Every structure is written in C-alpha cells, then in structure tokens.
C-alpha cells in the first residue's frame, strides 16, 4: 500500500508538470514504475503510454477552450503518429531491456537540452504555412510515433521542439503537441495490450492520479504559467531522470 501511495503522488505531480507542456509525462511515468519494481516491457511502458494519452487528452479540454490548439496543422502529424505508434510498441518486445533504458535516457537528455536552449530564445513571430507544417508533420509524426510507442513516451518530447521550430509559440506548441500525443499514446497502448499485458489495480489508481494532476496543470498553464518558467522546470526534471536512469544502467 505504501508503494502504491508513493507512486500515486509522484505520478500526480508529474502529470501536473507535463500537462502544462502537452507532453503527457511518459518520461517520468515509465522510469518511476520501473524503479518501483514493475517490469519495464510488460507493465511500465504500456501503462506509461496509457497515462500519457489520458493526461494529454484531459489537458486538451482547457487548451481547446482557450483556442490554443492548431487542429489543422497537427492533423497530419497526429495521423501518422497514430499509425506508427503501435508498430513501435510491438517492436519493444524484441529489444533488450537494457537497450531500451539506454535509448530512453538518451532521448530524455536530448529533450532536456533542447528545451533549455529554447528557454533562452524569444517567442517566434512567424509560423510556417499550413502546407509546410503538414509535410514536416508527416515525417515527424511517423518518427515520433514509432519511438514513442517503443519507449512508452507518446513522442511529445520530439514533437514539441519541432512545432516551436515551425513558428508555434510555447503555449500553442504545448496545446498542439497534446493533440498529437493523445493519438500516438492511445494507439501505442493498444499495440501493447493486444499482446495481453495489463495490471488493472495499478492502472485504476494511476488513472485517478493523472486526472487530478492534468486538470490542475492545464488550468495553471492557461491562466498563470510563464513560458520560460515552464521550459526550465521541464528541462530540470528531465535531466534528473536521465541521470538516474544512466546510473541505473551502468551501476
């Protein structure tokens, strides 16, 4: 019971932070579940995808109300991520666990460094055309969906920086990322459960944690949060996770 309580609190806190960025929180969910003693491939990754998708789906509500989501610009990316994510999920069954952990840590470090760099940049003034966003989105969605499905991340850590490079402001990028990641996460999760893995008591407890955290995080992001503060907090959390994961692999 104590273990479940600790995991509940950590997942709720992670949901609050990551909901502000439209990223779901898989970068925290997966390692936390693994550190708590749950198997990486059969429990941590599929459950991470489910919680990721639930978090982004819930945070879409306040984002949509504030009209921050670029539905048209994110549609192609969401579609390709939807298709590629189950393929990545099924691939994870055939990749050694240590390799998955190393890949996970590398992706987390890359996302953290990219976010720290962007926190020092001014908000973009001009966005690419819809055609350009759709073409880039096709390839980014495919790659992010596959990698996200394989590692239990949803792919938001790849999508958000690319959207900002396309000209999205921080809050618009977070909202549109949430739109795309919802599709990639749920489809990746379905790819995992089709193979028969599920821990229902743990799932129910953590779903409640995500509901609480995501709603609080979404409201804070739309009403009070400053872009630079959000980026720095996100990057620091990711770097700490990456350090812990790398230590776990080499220790």
UniProtKB/TrEMBL annotation:
Membrane topology designation: Multi-pass membrane protein
Domain of life: Bacteria
Broad class of the protein's primary localization: membrane
Signal sequence segment: none
UniProt keywords, alphabetically: Cell membrane, Membrane, Transmembrane, Transmembrane helix
Keyword Transmembrane tagged: yes
Family: Belongs to the 4-toluene sulfonate uptake permease (TSUP) (TC 2.A.102) family.
Name of the molecule in the record: Probable membrane transporter protein
Protein species of origin: Tenuifilum thalassicum
């Amino acid at each position: 019971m104590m273990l479940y309580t600790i995991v509940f609190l950590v997942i709720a806190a992670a949901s609050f932070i990551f909901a502000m960025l439209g990223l779901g929180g898989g970068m925290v969910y997966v390692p936390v579940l693994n550190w708590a003693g749950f198997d990486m491939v059969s429990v941590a990754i599929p459950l991470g995808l489910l919680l990721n998708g639930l978090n982004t789906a819930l945070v879409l509500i306040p984002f949509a109300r504030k009209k921050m989501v670029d539905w048209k610009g994110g549609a192609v990316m969401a579609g390709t991520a939807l298709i590629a994510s189950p393929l990545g999920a099924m691939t994870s069954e055939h990749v050694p666990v240590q390799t998955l952990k190393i890949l996970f840590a590398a992706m987390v470090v890359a996302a953290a460094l990219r976010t720290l760099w962007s926190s020092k940049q001014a908000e973009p003034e001009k966005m690419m055309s819809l055609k350009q966003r759709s073409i880039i989105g096709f390839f980014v969605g495919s790659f992010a969906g596959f990698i996200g499905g394989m590692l239990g991340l949803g792919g938001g850590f790849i999508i958000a920086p690319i959207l900002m490079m396309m000209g999205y402001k921080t809050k618009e990028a977070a909202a549109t990322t949430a739109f795309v990641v919802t599709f990639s996460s749920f489809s990746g999760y379905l790819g995992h459960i089709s193979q028969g893995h599920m821990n229902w008591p743990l799932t129910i407890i953590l779903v409640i944690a995500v509901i609480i955290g995501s709603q609080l995080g979404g409201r804070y992001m739309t009403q009070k949060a400053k872009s630079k503060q959000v980026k720095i907090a996100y990057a620091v959390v990711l770097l700490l996770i990456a350090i812990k994961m790398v230590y776990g692999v080499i220790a």
